[in-house]
Amino acid sequence: MFETFEETLNWIHGRKVFGMKPGLKRMEWMLERLDFPNKKIKAIHVAGTNGKGSTVTFLRNMLQANGQVVGTYTSPYIELFNERISVNGEPISDKQIIRLANIVYPLACELEETELDGPSEFEIITMMMFVYFGEGHADVVIIEVGLGGLLDSTNVITPIVSAITTIGLDHMKILGETVPEIAFQKAGIIKPGVPVVTGKIPKEALEVIEAHANEKGSKVYFFGKDFTATKWQTLPTWGEQFTFEDEAIYLNQLQIGMLGKHQIENATVAIETLRIYSEKTGLVLNHEDTRRGLKQSFWPGRMEKVNDKPLMILDGAHNEPAIRRLVETIKLDFNQQEVYLIFAVLQDKAIGNMVSLLTELPNIHLILTSFDFPRAATIDELKGYAGLGVTIKEHWQEALRDTVNEMDESDVILITGSLYFISEVRQFLTKPNNG
Which residue of 54, 125, 152, 255 has the fewest C-beta atoms within 10 A of its own C-beta? Predict the structure, then answer.
């Protein structure tokens, strides 16, 4: 049993060596022995290739502004491990992490002796989350899918409403080689009779989702059809403004503090999901409180401005679909400026495609680098992309220092790529006497 936070984390992270283990049998085995805490919570389930974290944040803030105590389960963490399990945006304490791990540890040991084999790191953390929220620490819990949906460890809940934010090519070795195959995995979170909200999703993926929902008798609310975002404009201060409309409500001049058209799409998915949740549960929404919650929403590492002079932005564009949206945002908001883009990514991503998309922009100075993470693309792996418009720097700290010395006052530094990379940079920049 664990007595310190350090030894608790060492055990949890030590499960990484067992890799990912898709499937729900281990989760079901452990949940049964703890009297199914997953059945004791009111949940909203959020899946998607990108946009999950932002959508969860918008939902959490709007629910909280409407008087709810809101639990969230997200990954990966940006600053603290504990933030993966949070209440009203506050990570649970080290003491709670130790307590929850000590509940799950005996089950993990017992499970290890069965034909199912021991749980993965993600299964352990997910179990800790279910135990905690099953104890009644929140009115509603927003649960972010870890990977895919159908076989994800979180897919043992029957939520009030589900949301699928986006679908694109990522984690293809696990989820499938085509958009419809990946859509099939995401659609796996749809439960019988449970409504599902979809974001901006390709037609071929929507067809898969709709077919799956019809089989389950679940109503689908489509972005652009059942609910819309119009009158969109970028705010001169920072963020976006838009008007939301569906069959029941009309909210004009809504504001969000996150930059990019994709964040408007995430926000509209969150609003529609909130509306359906409120109808299903009887929660009375105050539109002004909803506006306030939306405007106050903040998610670190998503087009996050960390410095004004020079303008420095962090954005976790960690896969090809996210890079496409980043390119769109740069074209719209920074087309008159030189952008120095420091980029580090994981080995299993479509690095060549991502680099090609970025180098198409005429105002981009692309610097490829690496960071301290086992699956990070190494400098040797990145050297093949050096050339016209692309610089290689062994250490991101060196890349950042050289960029600051080289750039003009009107230029922009955009640090992007893996969320693990963004976490490392953010922790460095927010320390006293750094940045």
Answer: 255
